[in-house]
Design brief:
One of its GO terms (molecular function) is acyltransferase activity. This protein is an alpha+beta fold and 426 residues long. It folds into 2 domains: 188 residues, Chloramphenicol Acetyltransferase, CATH 3.30.559.10; 210 residues, Chloramphenicol acetyltransferase-like domain (Chloramphenicol Acetyltransferase, 2-Layer Sandwich). Helices cover 31% and strands 23% of the residues. The strands form 3 sheets. The protein has a 6-stranded mixed β-sheet with strand order 1-6-7-8-3-13, with helices on one face. Strands 9-15-14-12-10-11 form a 6-stranded mixed β-sheet. Strands 2-5-4 form a 3-stranded antiparallel β-sheet, with no helix packed on it. Strand 14 and strand 15 form a beta hairpin. The longest helix is centred in the middle third of the chain and has 21 residues. It is globular and about 60 Å long.
Length: 426
């Protein structure tokens, strides 16, 4: 497969950012966010284009014009980070690339290759925000068949998954000619003022050993079977889909790691990103943007690492439930203390740490730029071991688990009998 870049340009907001908005304070939560980009690729079928009698030239022109209009309201995405506490909303713009792909989209969808998927992104999302690198970048990939894949990277320093979904929704509405209906709020710093800190990415986050990312699909039937196994006759409350899949992956990974290390037990910690929207007593603007999330932490001692699946679900549920209004009320004082704890866990080689993030509630499959909804939405491989991203399937009733593990661990994980009992496809 070859990808040929046919054009590169900078898309600026259609209207200049007012002077009083040009110096933008990031929140303390933004300061503590990962120094990476959030990567996503949305694939659109050429069948939809033909039915609407539009070609890729018209589509790309429409995407660029509507992006310019949307950046006017999402002005920090077209700015540049200055230090660690504020941004200059100087309308530098977003990078926009158009590329030709010399195969049909169907070839990609038949057997997705993680390294190929990375090529549909405009930049490497895990190199951070170096000087001169835009906060936001897009790549429109035009396939031989006429289908299009829109790859995007937006700095995690200013957006989380919910903010990304809000932005894409606004962009797609603008592309369809709607008047501005989504008014984002970038006032998170008033709730969580920035501090004079310089958070560095801890050593060891980017894995030195070779990692592998693979996708495991759980359809509606397999999720029902998994939830039934967890709750049946054990006195456990009916688990959610996320709780059940999280616990299954965690348990399987621990089993494989014990085998690899030739130990009967290991200490293990799980973190799950929890959206704070809807959990705060204080009423927030409808489209509150920024990194409004925290990590729920569940830990197992060596003596607990052989725990059964049902009890593991209870551990995960208790950890997530702790992120409530009382927790958020005390959050400012506890943030830096919590950061120190997370850094200690990363540095502690005796504890296996697994990081989960669920995107299944984000309506990425509803993003219609005027030429139909996406036929597949995906992320890409990650150079960080023990990372799991949960995404919705196109039907909405299944889950795609994008799991990144050390290469040797993945070789046994993907063949583990307990996992394969519920995975519908890979």
């Amino acid at each position: 497969m070859e990808i040929n870049i046919i054009s590169t340009e900078n898309i600026k907001p259609s209207s200049p950012t007012p002077d009083h908005l040009r110096s933008f304070k990031v929140s303390l939560l933004d300061q503590l966010a990962p120094h990476f980009y959030v990567p996503l690729v949305l694939f659109y079928s050429a069948d939809e284009f033909r039915s609407k009698n539009v070609d890729h030239i018209q589509i790309c022109d429409q995407l660029k014009k509507s992006l310019s209009k949307t950046l006017t309201h999402f002005y920090p995405l077209a700015g540049s980070l200055k230090g660690n506490s504020f941004m200059e909303c100087d309308d530098e713009g977003a990078s926009y690339v158009e590329a030709r792909v010399n195969i049909d989209l169907s070839k990609i969808l038949q057997n997705p290759d993680m390294n190929i998927l990375m090529q549909f992104l405009p930049l490497n999302p895990y190199k951070g925000n170096d000087k001169g690198v835009p906060m936001t970048a897009f790549q429109a990939n035009i396939f031989n068949c006429g289908s299009i894949g829109i790859g995007l990277c937006i700095s995690h320093r200013i957006v989380d998954g919910a903010t990304l979904a809000t932005f894409l929704n606004a962009w797609s509405e603008a592309s369809k000619g709607a008047t501005q209906t989504i008014i984002p709020s970038f006032d998170l710093a008033s709730l969580f003022p920035p501090k004079d800190i310089n958070v560095q990415m801890p050593h060891g986050v980017i894995s030195e050993e070779k990692t592998v990312t693979k996708r495991f699909v759980f359809d509606a039937r397999s999720l029902d079977l998994l939830k039934a196994k967890v709750g049946l006759g054990r006195g456990h409350a009916n688990p959610s889909r996320v709780e059940a899949v999280t616990s299954l992956i965690w348990k399987t990974a621990m089993s494989v790691t014990r085998e690899k290390l030739r130990k009967t037990s290991i200490s293990s910690t799980l973190s799950h990103a929890v959206d704070l929207r809807g959990r705060m007593v204080q009423r927030l603007p409808e489209h509150c943007c920024g990194n409004l999330w925290q990590l729920a932490i569940a830990s197992l001692t060596k003596d607990e690492s052989n725990i059964d699946l049902g009890d593991l679900v209870s551990h995960v549920r208790k950890a997530i439930k702790k992120i409530d209004s009382d927790y958020i009320e005390k959050l400012q004082d506890a943030l830096l203390e919590g950061l120190e704890l997370r850094l200690e866990m990363v540095a502690n080689q005796e504890v296996e740490m697994y990081r989960f993030s669920s995107w299944i509630r984000f309506p990425f499959y509803d993003i219609d730029f005027g030429f139909g909804k996406p036929i597949w939405v995906c992320t890409t491989n990650v150079p960080i071991k023990n990372i799991v991203v949960l995404m919705s399937t196109r039907s909405g009733d299944g889950i795609e688990a994008w799991v990144t593990l050390a290469e040797q661990v993945m070789a046994k994980f993907e063949c583990h009998h307990e996992l394969l009992e519920f995975v519908s496809s890979t």
